[in-house]
Amino acid sequence: MSYFARLKRMLYASLGSIALCASGVAAEDDPQLRPILVGNVKAEQLPDSVRVADIMRGDRRSWPDGTILTVVLPSRKHPLFDQVGKDFFAGKGAPLQRHWLRLVFSGRGNPPLYAESIEEMCELVQSNRGSCALFYDAVPTPCQSLPRSPRLDTSQ
Fold this sequence. Notes:
This protein has 156 residues and is α/β, with parallel strands linked by helices. It has helices at 3-23, 49-56, 81-89, 93-106, 118-127; strands at residues 36-39, 70-74, 113-115, 131-135. A four-stranded mixed beta sheet has the order 1-4-2-3, with helices on both faces. Helix 3 (81-89) crosses helix 4 (93-106).
């Protein structure tokens, strides 16, 4: 990563923190803003809060048992597009999408699946072994039988 790219990333992170402080709302204050990771894997393989960031940034390509990890991400039309980008990229959803495109086209990441709705996210997680997705409100009824994490702290 170039010097300017690192500087830009640090600036965006700082501006995001300032905006959160100015609004008086922090993710750790509102449990509804904390996501729940739902995965189509064994429950003991779901990671803690720190390692979820590795998954969302594409740093992990497989689960501990060797199953290929597929991330289900919100598309631009999804209501959570900007929220996921804010939690894991200190910005909006566009940096998240650009990051994943770079990973996939450079061969360093598994292609994510994109969903336009919460219901579609749930369907994709159910139908693809090794897939996972973040849900911010309640987990949809069809996905409640899948292993899930407690609400995650994304402020780290």
